[in-house]
Write a sequence for this structure.
């Protein structure tokens, strides 16, 4: 069966940049390998979810991998999985960050992630965090940098609660509220957590470690910001859902967490050259080769950095080009969302260029891989269409409405339940 490689350039999409004479970084970058691929490709535009909605990498991938946004368990769960937390069925998890706040008509956040804080200091500070409030137990565990995971357990807890972390800089700590519900357990959980935050702050602001840090001219870690509450989800694993053995080849904890969430394998690479080799030499039916460097470059808000990164990526793609043009392989190149390398937004909600290279694709007239060139291509799709299009092009898609077993499938099953004589 044909193997599929999706080369996913994180945050690929961008906006026209003045500094690049009105081109986007992808349009401005010199990318001969991507352009050779483009000349053999069916191209077009993909809307990650809905027009104008900026998505994070985790939810954009969840949709790209064929799962429904309503089933997304939250980034907190992916975060916990990526750090090898064992998820309990009846617990609620959220991500926390040690922050520096000041009292000013509320708690003004001076630094969302306290700088230069050591693991030793964090482990001492965590000792003063409350462990039980109104019948809810709260357990904080370290994950990475200034971050951790807070686990809640109790009879009436809910993950339908808002964040205390405003996410954007220079903001205030937000009161936690029941989110999109007035269920009593959500109200109760929010109340417990607000008490937890207040009590933690009362202990932390006078903690000797923080007093000492202030004395030394360092930022105190006097607040624990919370976000992304979620519960352990019950999702069908990728292979069972799509009939392809799936693997993510990546270099980030987030990708590891997503692979665990969806029951896919994960292979870590050190640089993209190795990533390309691993993708080409592995036997998985579906390989998602992910690089987060375009997104990171865009976050520097210097469009030239993104151009440079895209040119570097292109330099690693020769083996992939050779394989795509010679072997029985379906190659898809796209991104997960738009990260504009200027302006105020973190991510933005435009569509992305996409191209498919392989035996069954209807090659179109687009010659260069870019936002506006691909908008003249033949494909109009949404992120949720990707897997079905791959199944179709690799001749795995099931004739709609056939019923090979107890559940509706999108793919021709590898095994069937035989009638016993
Ligand atoms: Zn980003």
């Amino acid at each position: 069966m044909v193997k599929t490689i999706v080369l996913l350039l994180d945050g690929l999409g961008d906006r026209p940049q003045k500094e690049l004479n009105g081109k986007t970084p992808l349009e401005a970058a010199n990318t001969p390998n991507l352009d050779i691929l483009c000349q053999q490709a069916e191209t077009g535009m993909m809307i990650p979810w809905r027009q104008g909605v900026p998505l994070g990498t985790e939810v954009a991938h969840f949709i790209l991998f064929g799962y429904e946004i309503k089933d997304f368990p939250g980034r907190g769960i992916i975060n916990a999985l990526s750090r090898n937390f064992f998820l309990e069925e009846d617990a609620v998890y959220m991500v926390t960050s040690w922050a520096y706040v000041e009292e000013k008509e509320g708690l003004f956040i001076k630094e969302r992630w306290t700088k230069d804080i050591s693991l030793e200091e964090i482990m001492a500070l965590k000792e003063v965090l409350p462990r039980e409030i109104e019948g809810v137990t709260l357990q904080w565990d370290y994950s990475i940098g200034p971050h951790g995971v807070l686990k809640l357990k109790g009879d009436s807890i809910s993950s339908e609660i808002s964040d205390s972390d405003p996410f954007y800089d220079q903001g205030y700590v937000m009161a936690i509220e029941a989110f999109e519900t007035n269920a009593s357990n959500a109200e109760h959980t929010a109340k417990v957590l607000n008490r937890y935050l207040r009590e933690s702050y009362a202990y932390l602001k006078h903690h000797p470690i923080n007093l000492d840090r202030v004395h030394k001219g360092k930022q105190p870690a006097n607040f624990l910001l919370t976000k992304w509450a979620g519960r352990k989800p019950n999702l069908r694993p990728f292979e069972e859902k799509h009939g392809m053995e799936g693997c993510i080849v990546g270099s980030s904890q987030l990708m590891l967490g997503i692979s665990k969430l969806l029951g896919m394998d994960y292979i870590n690479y050190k640089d993209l050259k190795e990533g390309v080799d691993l993708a080409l030499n592995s036997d998985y039916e579906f390989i998602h080769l992910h690089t987060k460097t375009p997104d990171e470059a865009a976050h520097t808000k210097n469009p030239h950095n993104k151009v440079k990164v895209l040119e570097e990526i292109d330099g690693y793609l020769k083996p992939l080009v050779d394989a795509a043009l010679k072997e029985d392989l379906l190659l898809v190149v796209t991104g997960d969302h738009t990260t504009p390398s200027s302006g105020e937004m973190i991510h933005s909600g435009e569509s992305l260029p996409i191209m498919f290279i392989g035996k069954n694709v209807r090659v179109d007239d687009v010659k260069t891989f870019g936002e506006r060139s691909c908008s003249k291509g033949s494909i109009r799709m949404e992120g949720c269409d990707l897997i079905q299009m791959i199944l179709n092009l690799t001749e795995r898609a099931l004739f709609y409405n056939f019923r090979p077993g107890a559940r509706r499938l999108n793919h021709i099953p590898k095994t069937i339940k035989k009638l016993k004589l």
